[in-house]
Amino acid sequence: MSSAVGSPSPFDIRWRMLGINFQIHSSFWLTCLIFGYLVFGYQPTPPWTKNPFLCLACWTFAVLVSVIVHELGHSLTAMLFGQGGNVIVYSMGGAAVGMYEFLATWKRLLVVAGGPAASIAFWALTRFVLYPYADRESRVMDENISRWILLVLQILDFFNLIMCIFNLLPVLPLDGGHLMKDAFMLVTPTYGMRIGYALSFCVALGVTLYSGLKIAYRGLPYPPLDPFFNLIFFAMFAWQNFNVLRSLPWGQRHRQFEEDPW
Question: Which domain holds residue 209?
């Protein structure tokens, strides 16, 4: 298990399905609720005016399902290449943990791409199949029930789309960063990892600085996310990438770090 995920606790939820071990770390619940409060609070008309607790429950359920679907995309793709793995949901999101460093670089690229592919497919299913069907059925359903079902589907739509865009940014440890790093390692095994971490650091630093400018100057264009949240997270990513970059020796072929969390 990667140290980035955190130590197990007696309050974790565990089960096994499809030959994969699942674990929901206790830190996920509080972090998800805080994130939901920030996202809803950033909207001009928050949907929780009548029942904030049920609204946050809908948010937590939708996020949990979305993260598990995403990590299953990684794990099931890895199983095609004979590598098992564990899916861990924790405070920072999710991680598909396994010995993927033994896979060839092109196989690792496919394993990394499996997560975003699953999220995009799930988003398309929600947007073009589940939501239109639920919207039609809501006319004959109880108003209170249909309202919350539609809210869950709206959150699934929003979260999976934003997660795909956010997660495909070329910043490690996001999927986009892993795709970029492994692509460079295919081209130049000697310097590919160093180039990947250097570019990842630059992008993370750029997002951090722009988020800070957005906080200071509200008129700047920005996606529908909290800039303060992005500033904190991408500053952490920039610092992590900088530290890894400093530790990499020059002129040597690099192996994958063990148990990459995706």
Answer: 169-262
